[in-house]
Amino acid sequence: MNANTPRQGSDSDSGSDFDSAEWEQDAQLLSRTARDLPSGRHQFHKERLMAHIHEQAQQDERTAAQAAPAQAVPTQAAPAKARRFRLPRPAVTLPAMAFALSAVVVGGVVTLNGGDGARNSALATGPALTTDIGTATSKGVPQLLDQISLAAAEGDHPTVKPGQYVYIESMTADTFVKIVDDKASLASHELHRRQVWNSPDGTKGWLIDPAVNESPEGETLSLPDENGNPLEGGLNHPTYDYLAKLTTDPDKLLDLIYKETKGQGNSPDQQAFATIGDLLGESYPPAELYSALFRTAAKIPGVVVVDDAVDAAGRHGVAVARVDATSGEREEWIFDKKTHVFLGERSVQVKQLKDEEGALVKPGTVNFTSAVMNRAVVDGMKQTPSQASPTSPASQAG
Amino acid sequence: MRTRVRAGDPSVFAELFDAYSRAVYNHAFRLTADWSTAEDVMATTFMEAWRLRGRVDPEGGSLRPWLLGIATNTARNQFRSNRRYRRAAGAAAAAETAVPDHADAVADRLDDRRRLATALTALATLRRPEREVIALCLGEGLDYEAAAEALGIPVGTVASRLSRARKKLRAVAEAQLAAPKGEAGRTVTGVAAEKVRGNREGPRLPRQTRGDHANAIRPAQEGNR
């Protein structure tokens, strides 16, 4: 910081033997003893420090919890013990629970049809999804993203081997303009489960999303592009292999994003933000890149913090967001307030547009929302993590 | 800030780290004469800061003096004996001037290295308490009050130690810089010259580019930012 800046203020009380020129000259002697930490070491030590603090804080809490019942009656040991397992892991909450939660929070929007093959029927539609806009501020954005980035670096992301698949399960809903007999109105796809499988090279995949598929079985994503060539990874269609090779230097990454998305979207900054947002939602990047994505986002102008946002599964959190000035939508990435784990993302209308469709979409309308419920690496397409585990005990039966 | 530190808010430690890790790292280098030890001291300093958070005075200004004080203690534990410091400083100074480097053969780069070697050699001639005051006041620009707070000694002691140390430092440095440049007698004062205890680090290496056959591309030890 201000190393080597001499302060003469206090010299006055020590006599006249130190004039500022002499001080300058002496300080000059040490001028070469200041330098930055070697590349990457700042981040490394910072992450280690935060992990240390996290660990110590938990330990303190534990000793406090153990000390309490020692003085009280022995039967109170149980609640004290339970406190240890308090750390929420929202990303792996069961989808069933999500249904229950969302039914309460997005009340009126979701009509569950008893769970009996909701996927077999065409997806029900309902009235527009709405939300409280919350307050947005640009204050504290770097700090929040910094904390998020640190939390992301702590997470354990598996590597995906050839033959395996990245499985992502989300809860999603969206609002759209429906036109019946030339009359436009707002409607929404009810909250539903979306499951997607992708091979690390991106050539094989499967999608089950009742809002997209015609058949309840889902549909294949193993398709070549228009020219018959297999899909190659890129920022707009990231494969795991592509992400694993991507730079984790925030400056280089941001340069790349601006370069690759040039001319797309409503503004370069918004497009960069949206590109990162897409990587957060439906991909499973290596932890190092995942953490770097947030440090990259912190460098995009116009990013704000929204104090309260609800994800598709009804979980409240704090959001990192950016308003698209052209469309009047605010894209929000929602994180758990305490653990800073990514919960999901949504797009909220915050400004009413003057055109025909815009008149329908009032501020507060949720245009799209998606909560990540489960991310895993599985060994087969259409296999879910819960299906994968019973295979080994089965062999013991015989 | 201070209240948040006292409350043990983890995010405030992340902020402290961002703001002051470089200063602590450089300060630690001046006290250990070794960049990798300095890195260890820096890391330990912030963990110590977390442990000692409850002792922070709720009233006061920047927490930089506090952190530099912890770093000073940590470095002191690393280097209990002054002799070890001198050896490290000597080695580091020699390494700075001896690295044969084609790309660095530019005169001012060489000058930078010489300057660092001089600083280290000069710091090595000081006693440890003097070196600590020099590192805090000259190196990190703390005023007497802040340095006193960091070291836990009276302001008057800081002033007298600093004055003595600066005289020594200047004398050594001038002798060091003057000799190879052939500018002896330009600024060296009589008093200062007397204080020089002689060059303990052996003869200086000749100032010429050696090993022109060395790799043109050097390892990225200085980082790329």
Structure, described:
The complex is a heterodimer of chains A (398) and B (225). Chain A has 398 residues and is α+β, with helices and mostly antiparallel strands. Chain A has one domain (90-384). Chain A contains twelve helices and eleven strands. In chain A, strands 1, 2, 3, 4, 5, 6, 7, 8, 9, 10 and 11 form an eleven-stranded antiparallel sheet that branches. In chain A, strand 4 and strand 5 form a beta hairpin. The longest helix of chain A has 31 residues, at 41-71. The radius of gyration of chain A is 26 Å and the shape is globular. The longest helix of chain B has 27 residues, at 155-181. The radius of gyration of chain B is 19 Å and the shape is globular. In chain B, helix 2 runs antiparallel to helix 3 (35-51) and helix 7 (128-139) packs across helix 9. Classes of the chains: A alpha+beta (398), B mainly alpha (225). At the A-B interface, helix 1, helix 2 and helix 5 of A face helix 2, helix 3, helix 6, helix 7 and helix 9 of B.
- Write down the domain tally of chain B: 2
Mean pLDDT value of chain A: 75
E-strand count of chain A? 11
Encode the helix/strand succession of chain B as letters. HHHHHHHHHH
Oligomer: heterodimer
Mean pLDDT of chain B: 76
CATH first level of the largest domain in chain B: Mainly Alpha
Determine the N-to-C terminus distance of chain B: 29 Å
**Topology as H/E string of chain A?**
HHHHEEHEEEEHHHHEEEEHEHH
Q: What percentage of amino acids of chain A are in beta strands?
A: 15-25%
* Secondary-structure content class of chain B: mainly alpha
Low-confidence stretches of chain A: 1-17, 70-121, 389-398
Number of strands of chain B: 0
Biggest sheet features of chain A? 11 strands, antiparallel
Gyration radius of chain B, to the nearest Å?
A: 19 Å
Helix content of chain B: 55-70%
**CATH architectural type of the largest domain in chain B:** Orthogonal Bundle
Q: What is the total number of structural domains of chain A?
A: 1
Which segments of chain B are poorly predicted (pLDDT under 50) over 5 or more consecutive residues?
181-198
